[in-house]
Structures are given as structure tokens and as C-alpha cells.
Amino acid sequence: MFPDFLGIGAHKAGTTWLDVNLREHPQIWMPPVKGVHFFDHPSSTLRKRLFERKDYQKAARGQVLQTLATFPRDRNWASLSWSLHYWLGARGDDWYRSLFAHRDGCVTGEVTPSYAHLSEERIRHLHERMPTIRIIYLLRNPIDRAWSNAAMHLRKLPNNGSDRVSDDWILANLGRQKMIDRADYLRNLQRWERHVGRDRIFVGFFDQLERDPAGLLKAVFEFLGVGSTPEFIPPTVAVKRNAGGPSGVPMRFRAILARLHHEHIAAVHAHLDNSYTKAWLDSATDYLATESAATEAAAGAR
């Protein structure tokens, strides 16, 4: 059975929170790993599955090791079989479908943030095989999302921190086309809408996750058609998942990020037109206005 829903992104917009809380629902079944990465990586050689250093391949190997570590205690043959098949199985539509073996009474799905910016061809392929698929797309202010993503990578550096590398290095990463594409929410949404239909796409907002996580999760459950009354909301729903360090875009990068993303923010606001996207647009406009005023003041002082 193919899954009933996909969480497609965006990166650093609450997808780990979504994954963790969906797993808590008794009417939802999800693979043991977050990020199956099938539609963005539909095939790979056995050598790559064994040795490649990409995160999703390392996660597959890690899942097997974790299952083997608990096997002497729980003797869970089904879990071991699934993990080995996930790691070593030849990727293809049949392999992907087999990951979601029929679960009586359960809605099935997975969360892979990279799916948001799949190509038109891949979305068409996906929809042909899963014509009733439901899509969950969590969005975050592109300026905050870009900085959160950059900060995550900075924390992984040996020296750990934006104060240990040059601003030019940071700016080069913030301006990478991959980072720009991830913030082009309207283009991503329109590709999915053309094939799946707007009514089968749930758009949620990181802003609501921060202010009312229970309300956001309830809306997701309603969209998926599973129980959404208070007893289905986990008591840990407000716990932050995979959170970074201190939040907030440093002042010196705000106007730069606003210039990079203002057009995308304006476009998605025109498409969705709600209080969240309006707040994003207002903040980006304010960053640019502040920079302009500072430039004029500096010119006047000369």
C-alpha cells in the first residue's frame, strides 16, 4: 500500500515536531525513520546503500544498527526485517509501497522535508501512483528559516558558531540557489497544486506552532481524518523538537536576507493572504526600510 499522506517541508519549519506528534496518534502508522527520501532519491546502487555518506543513507544504516542493538532483548523480527529491507532493498515503486504494509484501521504516511521542491515530473509520477494522497506543508518566515538553517550548519562546524567564521562565508551560504529555492514557497505550492489539488494540501505555519501547537496539531489531525479530540493531543505537544540555539536573525544579516527573500514573501502572501504571511512581509519591509534609513543617515553625516 502506498502512504495516505506526505509531510513535504519546509526545512526548519517544524517537520521534526510534526513527525514526532503524528507518531503518537494511535490511528496513524509511520516508518521508523523520518525522511525516507524516496521521491528525491528514487534509486541507488547497492554500493551506495552500503557506503554512501549522504544523511538518508547513514540514517538507514543507523536504523539497522539500532534494531540489532535491541534485538537480543525484544526479538522483534518484523522490525529487523523492515530495517534491513529499508536499507538494502532495491529502490523503486514496489520497494516504497512495501514500506507501508497494510495497517488495519491506520492512516499511513511519512515526513521528508525535501519533497517540497520536487520537480514537476516527480510530482506527476507520485500523483499517478497515489491519486488520493494528502500533503502537509509547514511554512516559516523565509528570513527566519534561512537563518535557522544556516545556524544549524554552523553548529556542526568544528569551531561551532557564527562568530568563528567570516560574514562572507555565511553570506555565500545564505545566497546559495538551494537555499533560495527552499524559500520559494509559491513555486513549490503551485507545482503540488497543479497535480494534487489545493484542497488536498494542508498549509500550516511555524508561527502557530510556536503560539498554539495543540491547535495546529488538531487541524492536521482533522485534515487527515483521524481523531482530533483532546485525548488525541499528546501532553508533550508543546515540546520543541530538533530546536536550534538562541533564535533571532543577527541585525547585520536582516536586510541582506530581506533582499534575498522579499519577492518570495510578497508572492506567497498574495497567494495565501493571511495574518502570518502579512507579518512576514511587514518584517521584511521594515528590515529594508531600516537599512535605507541608515544608509541615508550615513550619507548625510558625510
Outline the fold blueprint.
Elements: E1 5-9, H1 15-23, E2 28-29, H2 46-51, H3 55-74, H4 77-88, H5 93-98, E3 107-111, H6 120-129, E4 134-139, H7 142-155, H8 167-174, H9 177-183, H10 185-196, E5 201-205, H11 206-211, H12 213-224, H13 251-272, H14 275-301
Parallel strand pairs: 1-3, 1-4, 2-3, 4-5
Note down, in words, how this protein is organized.
- The chain has 302 residues and is an alpha/beta fold.
- The protein has a single domain (5-43, 91-301), classed as P-loop containing nucleotide triphosphate hydrolases (Rossmann fold).
- It has helices at residues 15-23, 46-51, 55-74, 77-88, 93-98, 120-129, 142-155, 167-174, 177-183, 185-196, 206-211, 213-224, 251-272, 275-301; strands at 5-9, 28-29, 107-111, 134-139, 201-205.
- Strands 2-3-1-4-5 form a five-stranded parallel sheet, with helices on both faces.
- It is globular and about 75 Å long.
Which properties best describe this structure?
alpha/beta, 5 strands, Rossmann fold, five-stranded parallel sheet, 14 helices, about 55% helix, single chain, about 300 residues
Number of strands: 5
Number of spatially distinct domains: 1
What is the C-level CATH assignment? Answer: Alpha Beta
Largest sheet: 5 strands, parallel
What name does the CATH topology carry?
Rossmann fold
